[in-house]
Amino acid sequence: MPALVLLGAQWGDEGKGKATDLLGGSVDYVVRYQGGNNAGHTVVVGDQKYALHLLPSGILSPGCTPVIGNGVVVDPSVLLSELSGLNERGVDTSKLLLSGNAHIITPYNVTVDKVTERFLGKRKIGTTGRGIGPTYADKINRVGIRVQDLYDESILLQKVEAALDVKNQLLTKLYNRRAIAVDQVVEELLAYAEKLRPYVADTVLVINQALENDKVVLFEGGQGTLLDIDHGTYPFVTSSNPTAGGACTGAGVGPTKISRVIGILKAYTTRVGAGPFPTELFDEDGEALRRIGGEVGVTTGRDRRCGWFDAVIARYATRVNGLTDFFLTKLDVLTGWEQIPVCVAYEIDGKRVEELPYSQSDFHHAKPIYETLPGWSEDITKAKTFEDLPKNAQDYVKALEEMSGAPISAIGVGPGRDETIQINSFI
Ligand code: GDP
Ligand code: IMO
Ligand code: MG
């Protein structure tokens, strides 16, 4: 019963979509377990480029059943338009399964996300504005709307009333906005019910039965370890658990079932939105990483902040996720630098610190301590084996592996499916 978790080891956008798609051909189910359409996963198949936000990247592999698990927050309008967009391009989406326990991102959750950010002013998180945080807040406050509620009109009405009771007070009295009408929300949500019905399933049962029948199940994380609500750079995080444990709660599988945890790790670092980022570059190197790496957000179109590789963060990701492997992506982007600095530790208040400090105040003024590794100038995008890489690129990978605490089992040398060096098999 191979159950693999594939997740981001940094601040998101590590190339999870490509890695999931690559495995899609040999996997029976791909399950998203947290997050929502704040994710933006780019997958390149041949000359076709797909941007997925809510759907698991396995949707592009014909033999694979894509599943949206209970831990995901679902904007029905986004889901339906993503499905029809793929159908128009000839992708069969009929196998999709959607958990009846997944929470719905309602229009008022999106409004609250936007007004809260505006209200925070310069203290804002820089969210994607997709209603993610407020929807998870409703879930925890026990006033959330679940997919299954769409099939019981009177319950839906009561729940929307309960959810809007306090929110309308806040919207009108604090944020100076118009109140949101219960009937209008209920009507909008009911309009999605029949369109979504073919996909709704008891996904926990399906996934566990698949594992019992020796099917291969891949759990695809959105966002990344440092954006985790518990283990990330709080409060500059998302509102779910992208870390490995999130796969268990967000899909309904026991930890004893998970056989492998693969961390997707970019050969340098990026982050979108506000929050600390020790190796961030503000010079022409940062500009070059952004340009060569195409580091512009898939969801919001914002420029990603760029910096050198941070081994402290990679070690942390190994620890909190129990990583068994790394998939190193975008090594090709570093081609052409004579020297490549890598952060091996931090300096905090004049002291060398080897591990991620648990204190936010320390992390906010951590200064990177760099080791510089020799670069390479040869084109590596055609490399098929580790030995095809120039010696300095091999040494860079080996150094990162040594510092990060788990074997690098695959290396991305370009955005395409076939631009990958597989060192150890994942299944
Ligand atoms: P995700 O959110 O983790 O799925 O990552 P994104 O799709 O937001 O960002 C990763 C970007 O890098 C996408 O544009 C991918 O097509 C691209 N990409 C993935 N792996 C590689 C690689 O090895 N080399 C290059 N050059 N691009 C890659
Ligand atoms: P993928 O799956 C990068 C960031 C936002 C913001 C913070 C909170 O493509 O890796 P939210 O809307 O989730 O409440 O915003 O998290 N963020 C991401 N950054 N990649 C993502 O997803 C992200 N999803 C959310 O920029 O800083
Ligand atoms: Mg992304």
UniProtKB/TrEMBL annotation:
User: Which keywords label this protein?
Assistant: Cytoplasm, GTP-binding, Ligase, Magnesium, Metal-binding, Nucleotide-binding, Purine biosynthesis
The family classification in the record reads: Belongs to the adenylosuccinate synthetase family.
Q: Which residues form the active site?
A: D13, H41, K139
Domain of life where this protein originates: Bacteria
InterPro entries documented for this protein: Adenylosuccin_syn_GTP-bd, Adenylosuccin_syn_Lys_AS, Adenylosuccinate_synth_dom1, Adenylosuccinate_synth_dom2, Adenylosuccinate_synth_dom3, Adenylosuccinate_synthetase, P-loop_NTPase
The protein's job, in short, is: Plays an important role in the de novo pathway of purine nucleotide biosynthesis. Catalyzes the first committed step in the biosynthesis of AMP from IMP.
Cofactors demanded by this protein: Mg(2+)
**Subcellular location(s) per record:** Cytoplasm
List ligand-binding residues for GTP: 12-18, 40-42, 304, 330-332, 412-414
EC number from the UniProt entry: 6.3.4.4
The record's principal subcellular location, in a coarse class, is cytoplasm
Q: Which GO terms describe its molecular function?
A: adenylosuccinate synthase activity; GTP binding; magnesium ion binding
Q: Which PROSITE patterns match?
A: ADENYLOSUCCIN_SYN_1, ADENYLOSUCCIN_SYN_2
Co-factor binding comment: Binds 1 Mg(2+) ion per subunit.
The name under which this protein is listed is: Adenylosuccinate synthetase
The catalytic activity, as recorded, is:
IMP + L-aspartate + GTP = N(6)-(1,2-dicarboxyethyl)-AMP + GDP + phosphate + 2 H(+)
Q: Which organism is it from?
A: Streptomyces phaeoluteigriseus
Q: Does the keyword field hold Metal-binding? A: yes
Spell out the subunit comment: Homodimer.
Q: Which residues bind substrate?
A: V298, T299, T300, G301, R302, D303, R304
Cellular component, GO annotation: cytoplasm
Q: Which HAMAP family match?
A: Adenylosucc_synth
Name the enzyme's class. Answer: ligase
* Biological process annotations from GO: 'de novo' AMP biosynthetic process; IMP metabolic process
